[in-house]
Design brief:
Elements lengths: L8 E3 L13 E8 L22 E2 L4 E9 L2 E8 L6 H9 L6 E6 L23 H20 L2 E2 L1 E8 L5 E2 L9 E8 L5 E8 L12 E2 L3 H13 L3 E5 L6 E2 L18 H20 L2 E2 L5 E11 L3 H9 L7 E3 L6 E3 L10 E12 L2 E5 L3 E2 L1 H5 L29 E5 L8 E2 L30 H14 L1
Parallel strand pairs: 3-12, 5-6, 11-13, 20-22, 21-23
Antiparallel strand pairs: 1-2, 2-4, 2-7, 4-5, 8-10, 8-15, 9-14, 10-11, 16-19, 17-18, 17-19, 19-20
Helix pairs in contact: 1-2, 3-4
């Protein structure tokens, strides 16, 4: 593990006063958070266990944007790792007391270090390096502080573009969240000073056999846009449950030859194509007012019904506080001492909401399914579903009433897949005439996660 990260890339802009959004100041920065694989073993996350990193193909970063208006200061950070638990986010916030709100999201990169403990060398060993996690927290905080120092007046434009051809839906019913959202910040001379891109896809193009550290397609997308617009870029992951993936997406090179999953050639090309999709969104971007700044956040509890997760607790692989489930998602009692697995346990998490003028952002702490975001829960449910009579959850986007909207997934926590309860399917007979259950439930806390989270989010907005 290197004692400190490489130098922060500094992006500062000095520009004349602007009139469309008075006093909106914006700053960007990034820090290199690549672990040192020569100092100690680094276990790659996202697929199977015992995947030891053999070299660094391309660097990993924490990328931050800070917005300030009327003495309110909000930071949004994207980190090239598989996921971060809420305690990491709380530690970062403690280092930065002057901020109104800090949102830390992971890209859900499957080619970076284990930051959750689930992908070590074997079943009973965590893949987390505590020293790296401390340095990671410092790196995230450093990116925010530097972005804060780089603030300057800026205007904003927003655009969207559809890219269904860049997504594979790995689970029935096939519902894609194929909208890319792009924000362009510029000075009064219309020169770009920073870009934010939000897209809904697992960064896992390199697949499970890769042993080289990489940001997957995210790194290539960011590089393309930085070169194109000559400004910093922040990439945010959105809706990735369900399963929104780059695997099995047909990608061809410039000569029309199909590129294979698990190759850097496909990963690079996919990143380029996504960059071009963002470019299309930015070409049609319209001015947007991003002031005033407002946020809400709520701590809530979700029961742990996943036996694999409970095993992780008992083995000491999953290291986060456990609570006794009371049936109330807003109240729970911290478990002190040895866990009693005969009682229903829960974890604490956080849901958030940002209103930046005419833009609303839902901050969701996991991998939410498109059905729950877009309001497309299957109705009537398939006869094979385990809970066919479960009420349909309130859709996330339907609750955002502003002109523009965006979702940030894995925001301030990673609690796994968030499914509609009436699409939960672990018991035979299986949905859609399948002979076995589809992938998803094994990486969810349980069938009540979706209903609880969507209801808490609704309550947050009504508060």
């Amino acid at each position: 593990m290197k004692k400190q990260f490489v130098a922060i890339a500094v992006f500062a802009f000095i520009l004349p006063s602007v009139h469309a959004q008075p006093n909106l100041c914006v700053g960007f920065a990034e820090t290199n958070i690549t672990p040192d694989i020569k100092a100690k073993p680094v276990w790659l996350a996202g697929f199977g266990k015992n995947r030891k990193a053999t070299r660094v193909h391309d660097a990993l970063f924490a990328r931050a944007i800070v917005l300030e208006h009327d003495r309110k200061k909000i930071a949004i950070v994207s980190v090239d790792v598989v996921g971060l638990f809420n305690d990491v986010v709380q530690n970062v916030r403690k280092k930065l007391p002057g901020f109104t709100y800090i949102l830390v999201s992971s890209t859900h990169n499957h080619e970076g270090p284990d930051t959750m403990g689930l992908w070590g060398p074997d079943l009973i060993t965590s893949g987390i390096d505590p020293a790296y996690m401390k340095q990671l927290e410092l790196g995230i905080a450093a990116a925010i502080l530097q972005a804060d120092k780089n603030k300057a007046p800026a205007l904003a434009r927003i655009g969207t573009a559809k890219g269904p051809e860049l997504l594979h839906d790995g689970r029935e019913p096939f519902i894609k969240h194929d909208e890319l959202v792009a924000l362009r910040f510029e000075n009064q001379a219309k020169k770009a000073v920073g870009i934010v891109v939000q897209w809904n896809c697992h960064p896992e193009t390199l697949s499970s056999k890769n042993t080289e550290i990489s940001a997957d397609f995210v790194g290539y997308t960011v590089s393309y846009l930085k070169k194109k617009y000559r400004c910093p870029v922040v990439y945010l992951t959105g809706t990735v449950g369900g399963l929104m993936t780059s695997l099995r997406v047909e990608v061809k090179d410039e000569q029309g030859t199909p590129l294979a999953d698990g190759t850097f050639a496909k990963t690079r090309r996919y990143g380029l194509l996504l960059g071009k999709l963002a470019e299309s969104a930015l070409e049609g971007a319209k001015p947007v007012k991003l002031t005033p700044l407002a946020f809400r956040a709520r701590r809530f509890f979700v029961p742990i019904d996943n036996q694999f997760y409970l095993l992780g607790y008992s083995l000491g692989i999953l290291k986060r506080d456990a609570y006794l489930w009371t049936g109330d998602p807003l109240k729970a009692e911290l478990v002190k001492g040895k866990l009693n697995l005969k009682k229903r346990l829960a974890i604490a998490s956080e849901v958030g909401w940002l209103k930046l003028g005419d833009l609303e952002i839902a901050a969701i702490p996991g991998e939410i399914y498109p059905e729950l975001v877009l309001g497309k829960v299957q109705n009537p449910p398939d006869p094979g579903a385990d809970f066919p009579n479960a009420p349909i959850e309130p859709g996330i986007y339907a609750q955002l009433k502003s002109k523009h909207r965006m979702i940030v997934g894995l925001a301030n926590d990673e609690i796994g897949y968030i499914l509609p309860k009436r699409q939960w399917d672990m018991e035979a007979p299986f949905c859609y005439g399948r002979k076995r259950a589809q992938y998803g439930e094994e990486n969810s806390l349980g069938p009540d996660t979706g209903p609880i989270l969507c209801d808490v989010f609704r309550g947050l907005l009504k508060r």
